[in-house]
Structures
1.
Amino acid sequence: MTTGTRPLAGKVALVAGGTRGGGRGIAVELGAAGATVYVTGRSSAAGRSDLDRPETIEETARRVTAAGGLGIPARTDHSRPDEVRALVERIAAEQDGRLDVLVNSVWGGDPLTDWEHPLWEQDLETGLRLVRQAVETHVITSRFALPLMVARGGGLVVEVTDGNTARYRGSFFYDLAKSAVIRLAVAQAAELKPHGVAAVAITPGFLRSEALLEHFGVTEANWREAVAQDPDFAHSETPAYLGRAVAALASDPHVMAKTGRALATWGLYGEYGFTDADGTRPDFAAHWAESLEERYGPLGDPL
């Protein structure tokens, strides 16, 4: 975006869980729209989280700044209320009490998800840890961040999920976490509406994250080589696509009309006119209807 088309210039965002994947894509695109973005997570130059991946909050922050915003890394464990409280106090002190966009994108549940067994055969502590990590962290972050937005009488809360329908997601604890995140958006929307603050949930389609590229043994430069392994991968999208959807919502002066809804990249690109990083407009719902519905059934109506 050019300087004259940075609608979020002067705005302040917090992307909780901005180290990699969708969170990183959102942080960078908020920066491209001109925002100051606090990028948080547990993986930093000071040390990796238990996921032991190489991406760091510092690298995301550098990308935010390179895109045209200001990236500020802040190592935070969002399962610890004391750390989140300190983070929000820092934002309030540095930004004169301003917070315009809160993105709850903390996840890290991939290694905790059991795709093979029903609930009664799963390890209970592992499943409950997934829920604590993927849901409680969002609650804790909103609890401390929302007062800044309420005080200013405006803003947007974004809950990042997987899927925007009631369709079962294939694993009990995974489904519980992703469905609960949508409900967090609904509940926050109800309580925040009198204060002029919107809250939505949003899902990408088939997200081409760093971990997924690694899984297929490809990079973003040659990702299409993995289509031979999984034909649906041809309809995947980069984290930038999700980021541009969120940036469009955050820039929309009429976003309150969407508060409480579960949205998707494929339902927003037509309205806002954004594209993926390569100029395409992936539509995973359309792909599902054309190629997967006969095998798996309808994707389902948005919640």
Note: The radius of gyration is 18 Å.
2.
Amino acid sequence: MTSYLTHPAARPEDEKPYRKGYRLPAALRAEIAAAHRTRPVLTAGCAALDVLIAVLVAVAGGGVLVCMSLWAALPLALVGCLLVARQLRALENLTHEASHYNWARHHRRWNDILGFLLVGLPTGGRLAAYRESHLRHHGRFGTSDDPDRRRYAELDLEGLRRSSAAAFTASVLARAVRYQLGWVREVGSDLSVTAAMLVWSAVFVALPAWLGAGLPGAVAAEVLWLVSVFVVLPVLRLVAEADEHVYSDSDTVFDATISNVGLVQRVLVHPHADGYHTVHHLWPGIPHHSLRRTHTMLMERDPEYARRIRIRRGVLETPRAAEATPAR
């Protein structure tokens, strides 16, 4: 079977991206313009804090795990991997911000340098390759040239079973390996990127653990980190990506985009306001620290936005128009 990920389908010359499908009221234009202001120190601080928490969890976890029996250590190790992966997911969302120059719009070189040092190295991501892929998602939204839509088709992401937690977990895990392989190809990861991430983790994870808990602690911390990167993080990323769109019943960007605003989604799956995805697709230049505020403003002041936006407040929910979704 031909893979949508490695062999994009030929597209007709007249294939058009989805139209936006939403018009901002003139009275709100000033608020939207103001929301585009970047705050480099805030974003860099968020990234540094995410890295610090991830490293502390891995280093402390490695030191604790070597003092426990295998059966006692296993549940704690799983929790540690989830916490580290959550922080790495937050860093990936800041890579996404850097791809739109939302760290420092008027200092693009620093935007990319900070993104590489604070986000790219810990996660093993390549900003340039991700930017090229992601901007095609925005510019060619809904077409056969949209890499996200190809992944949706290849993996049937709209077909994730959300009837129960068990069914959802099973359908996510059934797609996880193919998803990760396709994602790595899509963003152009290579051995040099992986090697740089491994060196980074040896310096900032294994070395501090070794100083505090000796060689066994260093090995345990590094294993915890690598399992988080290569096993748990791709699952969180898959869930996050599958949350964001429903292409099959829509023909505009507004109607095909889902905002995931429940507590679990905001804390675990879509940190740094990544769940306010409708606002992001309408105005990709609005940085993470203004997305939720912009969404709230539109819900309060634009009846059309509040009536039509599609929202999911729980991981297992079917997205529905906000007017049919009880407020929480």
Note: Residues 191-243 form the longest helix (53 residues).
